[in-house]
Design a protein that fits this description.
By secondary structure, this protein is α/β, with parallel strands linked by helices. The chain has 17 helices and 17 strands.
Amino acid sequence: MDKKDRGGLALSRAVEAAYARGETDYSLEPMVRTDRNGTPVGRIRDGDSVVFCCRRGEREIELTEAFTEPDFDRFPRSYMPDLEFVIMTMYHEKFKHLPIAFAPEKVVNPLARIISEAGLKQFHCSESEKFAHVTFFFNGGENKPFPGEDDVRVPSPKGIPFDSKPELSLPEVADKVMAAADEGYDFILTNFANGDVIGHTANAEAKLKACQVVSRTVARVADHAREKGYIVAVTADHGNIETLYTEEGKPHVAHTSNPVPFILIDPEKRPVVLRDGILGDVSPTILSILGLEAPKEMSGSSLIAEGDIRGKKVMLIILDGWGFGSHDENDAIYLADTADWDAMLASWPFCRLRASGENVGLQAGKPGNSEAGHTNLGAGRVVAQDDVRMDSAIRDGSFRENPVFLRTIERARRTGRSLHLIAYLTHKSSHGCIDYPLMLTEMAEGVPVWLHIIFDGRSTAPGSAPKLLEELEEELNRIGRGEIVDGVGRGIALDRDGNYNKVRRAYEAMTLGKGTPYT
């Protein structure tokens, strides 16, 4: 193999220098490749073609807006009317006019729609880090509230490392939820973000504090709701915070495949036996409690194996990233002061739900994630996730035949312009996979291909970016085309909290070459 400098090794050295400045993969400031004259290389220009090789939704919206909206006003930028911008999946219904490589599987009758059509009032609330999960994902891909649905978004902390405030905005979320119970909504949905957000950090002390806060808050909110006549269901979307360290003794910062709890709290304390199940069984359980018929699309079934509980009001509390751990010194929930949580498990019927792999529409053995979790919870069935459909397309060869990709590559070839791939640097993440841009690079024969790297810092081990860049360099040399021209951390490029100053830095790195230069 005739090796060529494709920019990966130089960016690897730039990342090492950023580490020395105290930066981490997740928050790496933009780094841009320049030629010997100091001119940025591989900028995105009007008339070029771009494929945004990420596949989720809520984190990709702001950067997509900057590239595609004619009236975008969050920061100054020159609109590129002749830019072809392809998105891998539909990040938001506002982008339905864009070329979409893999249109999402539609959830026709999610729980929120059934409750709405029954004429009931519902309240969805979380802090901003998980707001899309209790709205867009839980509601089956709907961005607008259903009739009778009120959505409340509490801002997450801004401008500080999350692990410096392990409680996040949970106290404010709890207040909003208890106030909604006072108002008597028929169905209340909330997400406590701490287990996932703090679980993704390497700060063990912050994790223990987060577990303590969640334990006390979930008990307080559940007790308040029970006093207001609510039947309360407490569950989780996937595991995370319960595991402190990897087998190598390093901080564990990723999702787990552990089962998650489902607790049912009945004010009348009627006898009931629950069975183990999957996340897709939660919505049928809630509908059975409310006395509503589940639609035929809901293939899940009630978790109530024995007994009969009916009620007019239900609260569903989702503890994000809160699984059943090892119950030893490596289990943050076990180690922390979680007496309230322990008391809930001891006092109320509970079961275990499978929340990973094929049980939530992911690949076998793959840890769950918030998007798959909330989609399955709201749909009442297993919903095939984007990564399964896209990875299946790579395996069976249909990825190469995707008409959106083929048209985009042919456009670049016909016009003599460049193809830009916004590439997520990880082998396994719910946001994307480096296999996608590599496959597109292979397909783009005769076309200049530039790769714009987004570093992960969540599903990848801390400090692993240089090695991943070296691996990517080797793959590009194997293919014989493609060059790496810039890199930026996920926390900047994939903001989801309305912090457009971050997104601006990523956008200007890709289009103007602004950032720390490297040669």
